[in-house]
Write a structure and sequence with these properties.
Blueprint: E1 11-14, E2 21-25, H1 39-42, E3 47-51, H2 67-81, E4 86-91, H3 93-104, E5 109-115, H4 124-137, H5 140-150, H6 153-158, H7 160-171, H8 175-186, E6 201-206, H9 214-223, E7 227-232, H10 239-242, H11 244-257, H12 304-319, H13 321-329, H14 336-350, H15 358-372, H16 375-387, H17 392-406, H18 408-426
Parallel strand pairs: 2-3, 2-4, 4-5, 5-6, 6-7
Antiparallel strand pairs: 1-3
Helix pairs in contact: 2-3, 4-8, 5-7, 12-13, 12-14, 15-16, 15-17, 16-18, 17-18
Length: 430
């Protein structure tokens, strides 16, 4: 553990001393113990370094108000240890640090895994408001609500000891450092820079994560040139805690096969002997989505409640909460049945069929909406296409195809709308 008085990071090593270094970064409010179930397997082939956020887990309470500052402190800690090149896996805020490292210090990062992460976490106001709550009332309210944000309801009910552990982790965090970490998330936005990340990247999300779930994961995959997506079923925000075996397996497979070999250098500069990437050989563009989750069981004719719940979940994942909330909030006695019909059958039935993945469905939806001239829906589905893993270049190809089959005027209108949406979704907001 670090004993320096400078704003360095508290850390812990596990695994063989001369193995390549794999770093595990924490989520806001957690400690390095969130990775306890992954370490035994990972430490078989890597020197695993876990670090704590300032003021978390008894770490020195030197607040860091930006993701860039956290990344700089981590690099300073690694420099003091003689670690130059490393693999990195981070959860939520820890994932933001991984993105920052891959963008600003690409020569240091050999391979990357982003868990429950996003290129922008919610809105700045959300995290600043959380800071106001902590400043006014302390961490007790945040601590008691953390299991609802971090775990599925079934897991929290079945694992009371882990639920209480989560509450205690937050409760014992330094409030000033927690507020500073909220400010760091509020100021983080790398949507416009994702295309510059040049290392193999695993993007991992819990299927039931309502904070940074599959929609945010697909935004990362859409922007990072060499990325794969894994959606872990039956997990919420703290996926490594709720589904430890699945996460461990995914990390082992990713870092074993995608660790880019680097030039000889200090400790941690070489990947495992089994690495399949040769320095200097260009890696092909990855298929953006390879989901872990199997197709869900099809509901029977009488399972209308299941159809509605499944459809609402998919509808929100594809179109986003804000769009769906506007549609549902605007329903009344006259239009409510239509919204129910759309949720059950368009989303619970058709979008839930196993024959096409969501990328393919987005391509079909965009073409059909251009053909029908349904421009409000077209804008919504352009955003959905980005969430589903389509890149702006792939959307462009779909629209060029509509110019052939739907006519130039329709394609011209589509390009105008899509250009606006892509800019809104991929450029930093003022």
């Amino acid at each position: 553990m670090s004993e320096t008085k400078t704003p360095a990071l508290q850390f812990r090593f596990d695994g063989p001393e001369h193995a390549p270094v794999l770093i595990l970064g924490p989520s806001l409010g957690t400690t390095w113990h969130m990775w306890d179930r992954q370490v035994p397997e990972l430490a078989r082939q890597w020197r695993v370094l876990r670090w704590d956020l300032p003021g978390h887990g008894g770490a020195p309470a030197y607040p860091a108000g930006s993701v860039a500052e956290l990344a700089a402190r981590l690099l300073a800690t690694l420099d003091g240890l003689g670690v130059h090149r490393f693999g990195y896996a981070g959860c939520a805020l820890g994932g933001a640090v991984g993105l920052e490292l891959a963008l600003r210090h690409p020569e240091r990062v050999a391979s990357l895994a982003l868990i429950a992460a996003s290129p922008r976490f919610g809105t700045p106001d959300e995290f600043r408001q959380r800071g106001v709550v902590v400043r006014s009332n302390g961490l007790e309210q945040i601590a008691r609500s953390s299991p609802e944000r971090w775990f599925t309801g079934g897991f929290a009910a079945a694992q009371p000891a882990i639920t209480e552990w989560a509450v205690q982790m937050v409760r014992t965090t330094d409030p000033g450092c927690y507020i500073a970490a909220c400010e760091a998330l509020a100021g983080f936005d790398v949507r416009a820079e994702l295309g510059r990340i040049g290392v193999p990247t695993l993007v991992l999300a819990g299927s039931d994560d309502r904070i940074t779930g599959p929609a945010e994961a697909r935004t990362l995959v859409a922007g990072i040139p060499d990325a794969r997506l894994a959606v872990v079923p039956g997990a919420s925000h703290l996926v490594p805690v709720e589904q430890p075996a699945a996460v461990t397996d995914l990390l082992v497979r990713h870092f074993s096969s995608a660790w880019a070999a680097g030039p000889a250098g200090p400790a941690g500069s070489a990947g495992p002997a089994s690495a399949s990437v040769t320095q200097g050989v260009a890696r092909p563009r990855a298929m953006p989505i390879a989901e872990l989750a199997a197709a869900p069981a099809r509901p029977g004719p009488g399972d209308l409640g299941d159809l509605h719940d499944t459809g609402l979940k998919i509808r929100r994942e594809v179109l986003g909460d804000a769009y769906v909330d506007r549609a549902l909030d605007g329903a009344d006695d006259f239009s409510g049945d239509f919204q129910e019909f759309a949720t059950r059958y368009a989303w619970g039935e058709v979008w839930n069929r196993p024959g096409l993945d969501r990328r393919s469905r987005s391509c079909v939806a965009l073409g059909a909406l251009v053909a029908g001239g349904h421009w409000e829906e077209f804008a919504a589905h352009t955003r959905a296409a980005l969430r589903n893993g389509l890149t702006p270049a792939e959307i462009r190809e779909v629209l060029l195809q509509t110019a052939v089959h739907c006519g130039l005027p329709a394609a011209n209108r589509a390009f105008t709308i899509a250009q606006r949406v892509v800019r809104e979704e991929t450029m930093p907001q003022e």
